[in-house]
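S1.2 Input.
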Amino acid sequence: MNVSSKQIPLRVAKLAGREVTPALADCVSHLDPSSPDDYRELAALLACEWVSHVPKCVGLAGGQGAGKSTLGRLIESACVRVGIRACVLSLDDFYLPRRHRKALATSVHPLLETRGPPGTHEILRCREAIGRLGRSGEIELPIFDKGLDDRSGTRRVRGPFDLVLVEGWCVGAGPVVEASLSKPINMLEREQDANAIWRRYVNAQLREAYAQAWRAIDYFVYLRVPDLAAVRRWRLEQENSRPAHQRLGSEALDRFVQHYERITLAMMDSLPSRADLTVDLADDHSIAALAFRSG
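S1.3 Output.
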């Protein structure tokens, strides 16, 4: 088919130092035109590069509002276009049901009622799903509704898939040095976790159950946000897209984001050296730079 010049990926390929091949241009032209151009081009670029060596499990991480779900969906479509059967798992869908988080809040710490931090996911089920999706057979996966703040059902998919992409804000995150947890970094930690019980519990989850899940990842993409101000702004944009009765106000949203702050900052420091691809995002959400790990 003929691909118009407007559809040919140039900017992201140039940032990546890659040639604009006919296959790459064709792949971009078949992706959702309503999605950001940069993300369409990046998805096509990755899918085309993976054709020669398909990773079994791709991790996709980034701060809240970075566009992980959008990019994951585009990567799935791009993979289909180049002949790779892919399945996207959102870590968010594995949030514990509300009643289970309420039980944790009673038995461990009240802050565990709020979804998001490690310890509020059914991480063993996610880990098992990653493995099962590479084999033949049907598997039932959970669906989480953020507006309801609870599980809303399930979906069924049938393997085997060539590639499983796991996207989520803390995918790939590791524990921090235990001694650093004693000093609170924001108002939430100072006022509601003065004894560091919550943050030590979260850190232990990263060191144990979550670390076991991340071992399945053999290609890692990290969307690095400009700063925490961008996270708050982008997260507010997401919130405003919800029905009015399900939105968080700015004060409630700021408190909510503080649950994520410590790990987000730690990931900004540690992940670029471990990721196969670090994608630096600009304030306007465009891709500012790409850094592939050599070797």
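S1.4 Remarks. The longest strand covers residues 150-159.
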